[in-house]
Amino acid sequence: MIEQVITHGLLTPVALIVLALFVAFSLFHILREYERGVVFFLGRFQTVKGPGLIIVIPLIQQIVKVDLRTVVMDVPSQDVISRDNVSVRVNAVIYFRVVDSQKAIINVEDYMAATSQLAQTTLRSVLGQHELDEMLANRDMLNADIQAILDARSDGWGIKVSNVEIKHVDLNESMIRAIAKQAEAERVRRAKVIHASGEMEASDKLVEAASKMSVEPNAMLLRYLQTLTEIAGEKSSTILFPMPMEYLDGLFNKKDKDSKK
Q1: How many alpha carbons fall within 13 Å on the CB side of residue 194?
Q2: Alpha-carbon gap, residue 75 to 70, rounded angstroms
Q3: Is 123 exposed, middle or buried (0-12, 13-18, 19+ CB in 10 A)?
Q4: I need a labelling partner for 113 at 20 to 30 A (CA). Which of 15, 31, 72, 154 fits?
Q5: Which residues of 30-59 are buried (b: 16+ CB within 10 A; e: fewer)?
Q6: Which residue ranges run through the membrane (predicted)?
Q7: What is the pLDDT of residues 79-124, one digit of tens each?
């Protein structure tokens, strides 16, 4: 039959070469190290081949290539209402790869789109169960929770989710101002607590010092003189310094004794 076609000039040598090259390219496939080929025989799953050179019979067998490298997928910003009724916009990034080529091709139509939609719904669901402060302070815990849920739900698709990272938690201007006021009030509260603690510790030390000075009256006099020395170093024209008269009793008694002598 082919000889008759050739003799009648219907199939030229150039056409034969083109046909041979087409059959060769359809017959031989080269898969890279990170690729696998899911082979179907007359529409039924047959095997997973690769990497390297594989042979696929045209029209009888079909091959679908699958990339096994880690995919970095950006999850679009999602509107989330936290448990304390605060509206925020959150976006994230997920890292996943195909670990079972057969499941990734047969069990789901498009594993990339399916993983993206699952990541968006899971992100809204998980973050909606937490308060705003937890979103801002406990990102590692939220990342682990989202990663565990995605990994479990995508296991039937042959997908392994290795990591999830929340990138941004965007707040509106009014909420930013409210958080700033809250932070300022917290700093003022801490300053007052620290000041009160210092006053309490100082009062304890003053009581201890007073008890020691009460044993020796001249100790208080020395303390007054030391304070005068410190004030004298300042540039002040007039110094009014009270001094109890009992501290001068020793001096007056000494003068009386000298006059009697």
Answers
A1: 6
A2: 15
A3: buried
A4: 31
A5: ebeeebbbbbbeeeeeeeebbeeebebeee
A6: 6-31
A7: 898 888 888 899 999 999 999 999 999 999 999 999 999 999 999 9
